[in-house]
Design a protein that fits this description.
The protein is 52% helix and 4% strand. It has 7 helices and 2 strands. It has a two-stranded antiparallel sheet. Helix 2 runs antiparallel to helix 7 and helix 3 packs across helix 5. The structure holds calcium ion. Calcium ion binds next to loops. Calcium ion (CA) binds next to loops.
């Protein structure tokens, strides 16, 4: 209970019922925050198999997704949108269950088959080479979506949806901070009265 402890350290005392109510409020809000804040560190990306034009078979492993392909999304030539810290980054190439490739991921793997190995530079070129395609068929090209922060492999995520995706996350955090500030002043006032 770091919040409560912090408030108590500030020398605020208040009736036990108020304390309980406040604890409930903070618990409810903290319960809602992890989904918005966590980086989902444990995600393991599925292996995709590529047969290159020269007949070589390459397994794109979790490690290769993370060390060669995802970093290409951080290249300014591709996009300046901060995909690598986005909560949606796992769904750039994969379906919502992260078990298989979405249409954009499939097009990328197809584009990668023209290279003899998977490097960050090749991944960047491959992403740019399918930039003008509209892999998910939602009317926005892949590169437009990558630049506007929507998923190029998910037709339900288009630039018009963008705002709805952000407001809930920040709303929770702003709400949490605001309620702590307000409670602080209420209790300081009541304890000095
Ligand atoms: Ca699209």
């Amino acid at each position: 209970m770091p919040m409560i402890k912090y408030l108590n350290q500030m020398g605020i005392s208040f009736p036990i019922d108020m304390r309980r109510a406040m604890a409930m409020l903070i618990l409810l809000m903290l319960a809602a925050v992890p989904g918005a804040l966590s980086d989902e560190e444990g995600v393991k990306y599925p292996t995709a198999v590529v047969i290159t034009d020269s007949g070589k078979v390459i397994n794109i492993t979790d490690e290769m997704w993370k060390t060669q392909i995802y970093p290409a999304l951080g290249d300014r030539d591709v996009t300046t949108y901060k995909w690598l810290t986005s909560t949606k980054k796992d769904y750039v190439f994969f379906d919502r269950s992260i078990k298989g490739l979405n249409p954009f991921g499939q097009d990328l793997v197809e584009a990668l088959s023209h290279y003899d190995n998977i490097t960050m530079v090749n991944a960047k070129e491959a992403i740019l080479s399918i930039g003008n395609l509209d892999s998910d068929g939602d009317g926005y090209s892949n590169i437009e979506e990558l630049r506007m922060g929507t998923l190029p492999g998910d037709p339900t995520d288009t630039p018009t949806w963008e705002k709805e995706d952000y407001i809930p996350q920040y709303g929770i955090i702003i709400g949490l901070i605001a309620s702590v500030v307000v409670l602080h002043f209420i209790f300081r006032k009541s304890s000095s009265a």
